[in-house]
C-alpha cells in the first residue's frame, strides 16, 4: 500500500516531485483557492500526511476527526494556523519552513518600509489617475530614513535580517526580544530596550514576532499612543499582532504618520478604514513571494513530510 498525502493547494512543482520520488501517492487540491474546513477534511480523509498552508485552519476539532494523520507539514515559517499542542497530544508531528524565507521576508519588509515613508502607493495612484502635471516642491513629501531610529519588535531571523538592511540607510537600531541578539548589538550597534522605550523612541517600528496568545494585539491603542506622531508602523508578521481597529483610529487621528501592512487581522478581509486611508500602504501577504523562496519552501515542507511518513522526526518539527 502506497503512502498517501494530501496537498491543500497547488504549490511549486519541486515540492510535489519530492513527494512522488519518495514513492507517495499525492493528491493536490485541484482548485487554486483555499478549501473550506469541510473540503479540507474530505481531502485528508484516509490520507497518511498533509502538506498545508497558513490559510488552512488545523484546529483541535479537525485533528480529532483526522487522527489517522501521521504528520502535517506547514509550508510557512509561522504556524499559528495549527493547534500544534492538540497535534502533539495525538502524537502527530508538525513542521514548518524556517530559514528559507528570511531574506525574502526582510526584503519585502524593507520595500514596504520605504514605500510607506516615501508614500509610493499614493504617488503611483496619483500618476495613474492622470493627475501628475509636473514636478512640485511640495509634491508627496515623505519622511527621511538616515539617522532615524528603527525599532525591531522580535529579533529572530527575520528581525535581524531587517536590521542588516537598515545599515545601508544609516539608521540606528533598538529592539525588543526575550533574548539578546548579538548580531544586532555587536555588528550593528543596536540596543535592547523595553517595549515602552522602543515605542517612544522609534521613528519606524517593524514587527517580527510569531502570533501567539502573548503577542495577539501586542500593538493596541495604548502602544500606538506611545509612538511618535511622526512614526510609522510596519507589519509583515501576522495581522492579529496589531489591533487593527485601534490602528485605523490612530491613523485617522494622526497619532502616527503611517502604516505599511502585508498582513491583516481577518485576511483576506481588509478593514474598510484602512482602504480609505492614504497613509496606509497595503499588500496582499506577499512577504515570501519570490519564485526561489516559494520553491525552497515547497521543497522543505515536502522533505519534512517525507521524513514524517517514514516515521522519522522531521528536521523542522515544531511540536514534539
Ligand atoms: C508567511 O507568512 C510564513 O509564515 O511563512
* CATH class identity of the largest domain: Alpha Beta
Largest sheet: 7 strands, parallel
The H/E string reads: EHEHEHEHEHHEHEHEHEHEHEHEH
Radius of gyration: 21 Å
* DSSP summary, beta strand count: 12
Class by SSE composition: alpha/beta
List the helices and strands and how they pair.
Elements: E1 4-7, H1 13-21, E2 25-28, H2 37-44, E3 49-52, H3 60-65, E4 71-74, H4 84-89, E5 94-95, H5 102-117, H6 120-128, E6 149-153, H7 157-166, E7 172-176, H8 182-187, E8 191-192, H9 195-201, E9 204-207, H10 221-226, E10 232-235, H11 244-252, E11 258-261, H12 272-275, E12 280-282, H13 291-309
Task: Give the key terms.
320 residues, alpha/beta, Rossmann fold, 2 domains, 7-stranded parallel sheet, 5-stranded parallel sheet, 36% helix, binds glyoxylic acid
Describe the structure concisely:
The protein is an alpha/beta fold. Helices cover 36% and strands 14% of the residues.
Written overview of the protein:
Helix 1 (13-21) packs parallel to helix 13 and helix 5 packs across helix 7 (157-166). The chain has 320 residues and is an alpha/beta fold. The protein has two domains: 4-98 and 291-309, NAD(P)-binding Rossmann-like Domain (Rossmann fold), CATH 3.40.50; 102-282, NAD(P)-binding Rossmann-like Domain (Rossmann fold, 3-Layer(aba) Sandwich). The mean pLDDT is 98. 44% of the residues are buried. The protein is built from 13 helices and twelve strands. The radius of gyration is 21 Å and the shape is globular. Helix content is 36%, strand content 14%. It has helices at 13-21, 37-44, 60-65, 84-89, 102-117, 120-128, 157-166, 182-187, 195-201, 221-226, 244-252, 272-275, 291-309; strands at residues 4-7, 25-28, 49-52, 71-74, 94-95, 149-153, 172-176, 191-192, 204-207, 232-235, 258-261, 280-282. The protein has a seven-stranded parallel sheet with strand order 8-7-6-9-10-11-12, with helices on both faces. A five-stranded parallel sheet has the order 2-1-3-4-5. The structure holds glyoxylic acid (GLV). Glyoxylic acid binds next to loops.
Amino acid at each position: 500500500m502506497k503512502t498517501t498525502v494530501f496537498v491543500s493547494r497547488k504549490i511549486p512543482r519541486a515540492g510535489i516531485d519530492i513527494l512522488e520520488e519518495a514513492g507517495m501517492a499525492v493528491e493536490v487540491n485541484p482548485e487554486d483557492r483555499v478549501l473550506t474546513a469541510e473540503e479540507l477534511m474530505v481531502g485528508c480523509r484516509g490520507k497518511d500526511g498533509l502538506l498545508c498552508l497558513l490559510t488552512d485552519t488545523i484546529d483541535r476539532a479537525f485533528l480529532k476527526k483526522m487522527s489517522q494523520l501521521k504528520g502535517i507539514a506547514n509550508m510557512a515559517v509561522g504556524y499559528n494556523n495549527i493547534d500544534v499542542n492538540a497535534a502533539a497530544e495525538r502524537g502527530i508531528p508538525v513542521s514548518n519552513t524556517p530559514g528559507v524565507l528570511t531574506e525574502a521576508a526582510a526584503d519585502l519588509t524593507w520595500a514596504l518600509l520605504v514605500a510607506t515613508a516615501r508614500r509610493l502607493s499614493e504617488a503611483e495612484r496619483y500618476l495613474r489617475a492622470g493627475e501628475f502635471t509636473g514636478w512640485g516642491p511640495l509634491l508627496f513629501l515623505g519622511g527621511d530614513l538616515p539617522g532615524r531610529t528603527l525599532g525591531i519588535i522580535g529579533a529572530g531571523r527575520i528581525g535581524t535580517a531587517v536590521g542588516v538592511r537598515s545599515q545601508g540607510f544609516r539608521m540606528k537600531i533598538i529592539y525588543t526580544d526575550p533574548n539578546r541578539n548579538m548580531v544586532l548589538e555587536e555588528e550593528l550597534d543596536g540596543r535592547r530596550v523595553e517595549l515602552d522605550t522602543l515605542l517612544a523612541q522609534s521613528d519606524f517600528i517593524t514587527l517580527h514576532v510569531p502570533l501567539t496568545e502573548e503577542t495577539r494585539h501586542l500593538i493596541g491603542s495604548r502602544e500606538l499612543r506611545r509612538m511618535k506622531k511622526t512614526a510609522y508602523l510596519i507589519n509583515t508578521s501576522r495581522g492579529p499582532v496589531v489591533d487593527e481597529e485601534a490602528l485605523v483610529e490612530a491613523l485617522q487621528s494622526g497619532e502616527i504618520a503611517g502604516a505599511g501592512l502585508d498582513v491583516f487581522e481577518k485576511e483576506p478581509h481588509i478593514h474598510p478604514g484602512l482602504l480609505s486611508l492614504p497613509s496606509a500602504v497595503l499588500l496582499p501577504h506577499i512577504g515570501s513571494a519570490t519564485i526561489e523562496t516559494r520553491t525552497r519552501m515547497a521543497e522543505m515542507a515536502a522533505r519534512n513530510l517525507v521524513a514524517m511518513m517514514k516515521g522519522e522526526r522531521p528536521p523542522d518539527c515544531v511540536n514534539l
